[in-house]
Amino acid sequence: xxxxxxxxxxxxxxxxxxxxxxxxxxxxxxxxxxxxxxxxxxxxxxxxxxxxxxxxxxxxxxxxxxxx
Length: 68
Description:
The chain is an all-alpha fold.
């Protein structure tokens, strides 16, 4: 798995977790979903993603073109 796919998979898992939290815990977890969406949006324009930095530090290889 390359870096781009790891970041996209991580974002998808976080969104699914936030949906479960909204359903079972509190609607306030929608703020977490909005944070994830805003982070994805800013990463698409700037190319900077904190999750990509963490995955790179953990040894996930590059290969995609989104996060260099």
